[in-house]
Amino acid sequence: MNRKGLLLPLMLCAQLALAAEVEGLKVDERVRIGSADLQLNGAGVRTRLIFKVYVGALYLPERKSTAAEVLSLKGPKRVSMTLLRELSAQQLVDALEEGIRANHSQAEIAALKGRIDALAAIMREIGSANEKTVIALDFLPESGTRITVDGAARGEPIPGEDFYAALLKIWLGGKPVDADLKKAMLGQGD
Fold first, then answer.
1. Residue range 34-60, pLDDT digits in tens
2. What letter does residue 60 receive in the DSSP assignment?
3. Dihedral sign from CA coordinates of 135, 190, 173, 88
4. pTM for the predicted model, two decimal places
């Protein structure tokens, strides 16, 4: 077999690796939001202390391997969280706000405050979320950040690409909520 003949099987193996299970959950290789098809960039487990909290997955129009590349990438994006345990609305709100505070200055947080409050209100409306609930944070350039729970949109979209970038920094910023999850979402494996 020549070099070109080896390339196709290797590419197929790389694609299959992206669709692998994480903590027993199948992670979709591709998703569609709006009119855009996004591909899985990477997925992993969010662990807090010794508890496995959720499987986080990052979807982009094209694969990127650094946080800077993801943050500068234009177009639609998705972060999905498939819960591995029941969480209250307040736990969700606290975790998101903590991740934003860790990666932004007081001035940046002040500029985002109204939109952070809007996100918190949407999360509180969700109430508690059971194991295997899928919460997706989608960025749609024409409308902003849309929150879905098990595929159903919640609340109104929150405007601004800067707001979605602030959310991405929860997982991909200089102080991510989980360094191993950051590597996994960037497709940087072990």
1. 899 999 999 999 998 889 999 999 999
2. E
3. positive
4. 0.87
